[in-house]
Amino acid sequence: xxxxxxxxxxxxxVLQDIDxxxxxxxxxxxxxxxxxxxxxxxxREEIAKEIPPPLLRIYEMLRKKYKRAIVPVKNETCLGCxxxxxxxxxxxxxxxxxxFRCENCGRILxxxx
Length: 113
Description:
By secondary structure, this protein is of the alpha+beta class. It has one domain (3-111): Helix Hairpins. The protein contains three helices and four strands; from the N terminus they run αααββββ. The protein has helices at residues 3-30, 37-49, 53-65; strands at residues 70-74, 77-78, 100-101, 108-111. It has a four-stranded mixed beta sheet. β1 and β2 form a beta hairpin. α1 packs antiparallel against α2. The radius of gyration is 15 Å and the shape is globular. The two termini are 13 Å apart.
């Protein structure tokens, strides 16, 4: 996997985690619990600056549809929709592809060993 693609995926995963924490913090504030919502939003802005705008737009679009826009692949299966990926979809041999998306659900994919 190229270093640039790996870095982009790491930023996207962190962004997704921050988005989930912001969502949870918003719920907690409605219940009267103190949260660090402003700090989380600032962190989100900083991370989002590191992601290329076209990729960030794809993430934002997927985020509106799914809670987890970026999901791992394990045993050649998308862990977002649980569909087995075709053998042609593999990070090996496609170094020129910036990101991989599930052909079924459209989520952004990353591989775990």
